[in-house]
Amino acid sequence: MKAELTNKFFEKYEQQPTAHYFTPGRVNLIGEHIDYNGGLVMPCAVTLGTWLIIAPNNDNVIRFTSLNFEETAEIELKPSYTKTGPEWFNYPLGVFNEILKKHTIPTGLDLLFFGNIPVGSGLSSSASIEVIMAYALNDYFKLGYEKIELPLLAQKVENEFIGVNCGIMDQFAVAFGETDKAIVLNCDTLKYKIVDCNLGDYSLAIINTNKPRKLAESKYNERVSECQTALAQLNQEIKLNNLCELTAEKFALHSHLITDETVLKRATHVIKENDRVNLASKALNEGNLAEFGRLMYASHQSLKDLYEVTGVELDTVVDFCSDYEYVIGSRMTGAGFGGCAIALLKKGKEEDFSKQLTDYYVERVGYPASIYISEIGNGASVI
Question: Which segments constitute the GHMP kinase N-terminal domain (predicted)?
Answer without folding.
Answer: 90-177
